[in-house]
Structures are given as structure tokens and as C-alpha cells.
Amino acid sequence: MSANKAAAQAPAEKPARGTRTGFTTGACSAAAARAAVLGLLHGHVPETVECLLPNGQLVTFAVTDGHVQTEQDKANADERCCAAHAVVVKDAGDDPDCTDKARLTVDVRLLPDQPGAVVLAGGPGVGVVTLPGLGLELGQPAINPVPRRNIEANVRAVGASLLERYGLRITISVPQGEEMAKKTTNARLGILGGISILGTTGIVLPYSTAAFRASVVQGVHVAGTLEHSTVVLTTGGRTETFAMRELPHLPPTAFVQMGDFLRYALGAAVKAGIRHVVIGGMVGKLTKIAQGETITHANRAEVNTDLLADIAASVGAPEAVCAAIRGNETARFAGEQMDALGLGEAFHTALAQRVISTLRERYPDQFTLQVLVCDFDGKRIAQAGDSTQPNNDTPDIPPPHP
Known about the structure:
The protein is of the alpha/beta class. The chain contains eleven helices and 19 strands. A five-stranded mixed β-sheet has the order 5-6-7-11-8. Strands 16-15-17-18-19 form a five-stranded mixed β-sheet, with helices on both faces. Strands 1-4-3 form a three-stranded mixed β-sheet. The longest helix has 19 residues, at about 145-165. The protein starts with a strand and ends in a 17-residue tail after the last strand.
């Protein structure tokens, strides 16, 4: 088995409690879609299927409730498979996720008049987007961009011969998804009727466990042993990739994915005597930090849109836009509105400065602070540096790209 190949089943040696990773709703949907397309090709849905995750891993998933539907082919009077059904049950690992054991269900149907097309649709239990600010089209199923691309890639990987003659309609549904969604913030964000199909890597890390907090602390302590005396804290894989690209002179061990655990990461930085802290993030998590949250999980506190509106006003946004920002539920909406006005860089810079001033109240002189802000594609849009530089040897961060 290759180094980048994994299995969805538990490994032979059971991992330590609280450390077992799981799979996202997006990864499970892609696996079910791939299995259903194989069913169309071969006349039966396989009991297991290999699926390529967004992070490049090839993972084997168990498939349940697979079956195909046939119809008479008018051209030659033979029967052909016209639809297929497959289910992958989500395993969230040790993350306390309300979608653990959700049945990600895919129904695939041939589209005779649309050869080459892959049409993605939402069925029962998948939420519908009703408010702006999420980066998704209004009225469309809440299937995020990375899972969308991953589902289509897996479908095209196995269904190329079918797509020469037909299109494929991929409908994702989640039985009990509407009930699961009541345990999330979906309704407040304008996602109604079910859960979201999520996942930028395909893997669920146990972000909410004591074990992950311990790994964050350990990572910061390791960074503290480096000659740069710098730790770069990011909220996930996408922001870490961005930060590594911006700070190529720092070794990989200087970068720590803190997830939602800023408090533990900064506490560890103080204990390790680290002189410089860089935070890389996007507008949502940075807003949580700016408003004083040091545990930034979505369920801990709502985004303070009054704060965002005040920042928008401070850089010249008209009152109507500020009012719209106050009335929306997402930080992303605020960023998009400011981008539309040509004030995006000024807005995100002011937000980064607010992050620094907020953290400086809690950590007055233990380390310097710098904040790098990226957009949802991982492109740099702003930065702010701490005016308090006791050692006058802060890491070299270049200006934003033109």
C-alpha cells in the first residue's frame, strides 16, 4: 500500500483515545457518488470503494444499501442501468460531531440529453442557502466549493466512459439531516432544511478534544526551541499553507495549526519564552479573536457583527453598508461587502490591528504580534504588525503582493 493510501476502517493497532481522525461529510459524499457511478457502469454497487480525498489521500470506504435501477434501451431493446443508489456512513473519529454516523446518500441518474455534464443537486436533509455571506449561491444546496470539486472529480475519474454519451445527475441526501442541523448554527446562517456538506481536506481532526489541545501545546513548545523564537499560529490547513508561503524562511516546525485553541497556544508561547507570534487567519476566526474570544469554535460565541460594522465605518463604508453588515450573521458577508466597495484591504488591515490590540490587553509584553490575513482562496489581502517590539527582531514579513 502506498504512503498516501489509507483505509476508512480502524487500523489494526487502536489509536490512543481522543486522537482518532474521521472523515468529513464531503469525503463521504464523494465516496458514495463514486460507488453509485461504478454501479451504473457494472450493474451492481460495490461493497467498498476507493475515494480520492481533497488532501490527496486515497481512502477505502464501506458502502451500504447499494442498488441499481434498469430500464429498456430503446435503441437496441436491451436493458441498461439508468440510476444507482449508494450510502456511506460517516465516521467522525473522536471529534464530537453531530453528523457522526450520518448516512451520506447519493442517487445518480443518467441524463441522456446532457453528455459530459455532472449536475450536483441536494436532496432531503441537505440544507439550502438562503442568505449571502457563505460564498454559495442563494437557493442552491449547501455543498461547499471544495467538496463540490472533489465529488465531481471522483465521479469523472470512474465515469469517463459514461460521460462520453450521457450526463450524470448526482443527488446528495442525508436522512435525519434536518434534525442534525438543529444542533448546528445553520439556521442562524441562513442554511435551512438540513446540514451542510463540508470539508477542505476530507479529514476530520479531533479539534474539540483534550488530546488535540495537548498537541497544540506540544507544537508551540517545539517551535520555542528554534533559533528564530517564532511561532506561526494558524486555524487550519488552508491558512497554514498560506502562512508557509508568506514566510518561507521559517522551518515547518515553526508553524502550528491551533484550530480553535488560541488560548492554549498563546499560553504555551508564554511558557516557552517565544519572542514572536504570528497569527494567520481569515475574516471569521480573526473577528472572534478581535472580539475577545480565545476559544473560537462556532458553538462558543456568535460573530460580533456590530464590531465588524464599526470597523467598516472607520475605513469609510457608508451607513447603509454598515447597517447591512450589522444585520447579517457572517463575517464573510462583511468582507465581501467591503471588497465590493474597494475597501477590502483597509477593512481587513483594520481588523488585523483590532486583533493585535485585543490580544495585547491579555498579553501586554510577553511577545511581539503580527497578523496575516488571507481570503478564502488562500491569497493574502492584509497584514498588521505590533508596534510593541521589545526585541526589535521581529520576523521578516514582506508587504502584500500587488
